[in-house]
Amino acid sequence: MTVFKTLKPSTLDRQAFVEAFADIYEHSPWVAEKAFDLGQSTELDEIETLHQRMSDVLLSATPADQLALINAHPDLAGKAAVQGELTESSTHEQAGAGIHQCNAEEFARFTELNDAYKAKFQFPFIMAVKGSNRHQILAAFEKRIHNETAVEFKEALAQINLIALFRLLQL
Known about the structure:
By secondary structure, this protein is mostly helical. It is built from nine helices and no strands. The longest helix has 21 residues, at about 150-170.
């Protein structure tokens, strides 16, 4: 098990805990709030244990709350990225995948896919981009756009939980 480098969750009060983990799930501090409310223990000082608890909170949430969290995520290479309006975590994640290096044709393709995906599914394409490059992301986009809505909804939640793990590992 991996322990946090910069903090010890079991020692935090509710406010400090929520502040520390509020953006692990994009603009959704309710995940951290509910995770804390399940009780504190030293086991939460292990990243994998806290991640499992937070994942369980998301997966047991109402479909409406899950959809709101999915919709809190920015488009990959979308307007928010171009205008510098992403959260710090999203900025680093997209930059790490080289999305900021897209040429005009690649940006156009991302825009086209983002628009088509949202028109079909009514939520943005979610992918944990760490370890991927822009070409792999476009390929995943082009493959997943053909899925059924229920499959993509479940995949979006799985990708969000993977993003959360990557973010926790940075703490």
